[in-house]
From TrEMBL:
InterPro entries: C-N_Hydrolase (IPR003010), C-N_Hydrolase_sf (IPR036526), UPF0012_CS (IPR001110). Coiled coil: none annotated. This is Carbon-nitrogen family hydrolase. Belongs to the carbon-nitrogen hydrolase superfamily. NIT1/NIT2 family. GO terms for molecular function: hydrolase activity. Gene3D superfamilies: Carbon-nitrogen hydrolase. Residues 1-244 form the CN hydrolase domain. It comes from the Bacteria. Keywords: Hydrolase. Transmembrane segments: none annotated.
Amino acid sequence: MRASVLQIAVRPDEPADERRARVSGLVRRQHASDLVVLPELWTVGAFAFDAFAAHAEPLDGPTAREMGAAAASARVWLHAGSLIERGPADELYNTSLLFGPDGRLRRTYRKIHRFGFDRGEAALLARGGETVTAVLDGDATAGLTAGLATCYDLRFPEQFRQLVDAGAELFLVPAGWPAARRAHWSLLARARAVESQAYVLACGTAGTHAGVEQAGHSLVVDPWGEVLAEAGAGEETLVVDLDPALVAKTRAEFPALRDRVLGVPVPR
């Protein structure tokens, strides 16, 4: 199974429509991959709080239409990162979109843990209420179950435990992580992989969002916590071959999840 992680640069001088078209082109070129992952809020910038309302879209808006078409063109599973969703009661969410190789929207995930404490995202956006998994059907993806999480969620292991209990074997984590805490980004991605014995595909942004320098350094981590690939600080594409059988093999060889005594053990 081949995965492409697209670390997108968010530049304030690039209009959102132009970035959508540019990113669509990048996705369409990943036709040799089976899974493509984009970062969090790449159309607006994760720290561009003042622009959230103006860039909010419904789930059938321009970003979803463009990304669905790109997924269908490349015949890939596409985690299209996240956008500011305008909900039916005019509330705003940080919502991730997962498209199948046919271009259909298969899953959405509204971010549960909103960053900012009493400001920024935490004050402007509504909180999601449900964890989300999706089965990536297909020969190459081997029916792996993906767990969806976004950026700040990475700091909350209980969410990932729930996803493991729901069958997750790999985690797709788009982010707009600040450079000031880059060390936490890589540490937490590896920790979630090790404790869950699952792949982690963590895709961040490059550039600067509303004056906040982004960490970049997207990474792919295997179920043993080994970093298979890591980007630098600028825009970059990681292409990594994953072994779908490694998750079950790791959990069988080192059955730590079986020894859980707090919460419900994983039925493996």
